[in-house]
Design a protein that fits this description.
single chain; 90 residues; mainly alpha; 0% strand; 63% helix; 2 helices; elongated
Length: 90
Amino acid sequence: MKTRLPRLPFVLLAAMTLWSFGGPIAIGFFLRGGARPDWPPDRPVEWAVLIGVSGTVVALMGACLSLSLLNRRAISRPGGPPDGPPGGRP
């Protein structure tokens, strides 16, 4: 019987990809409005989008890195991965 791969790493990767490409587009879209369409942002909504997108990307990056470290620790244990084949290879 084959073991199923966990979905969380793929969901995090997809979210990170979407926010990495869509975030700068959203920031640029919101920065073009207002009295001055350049830096620094002059409206509260521009600051909210900038902080929200940046915070989301940083949180997703932290989640991806922490999941990677947890998986590395689980694999480096003497017993190997809990559901993996013996020896670490199929």
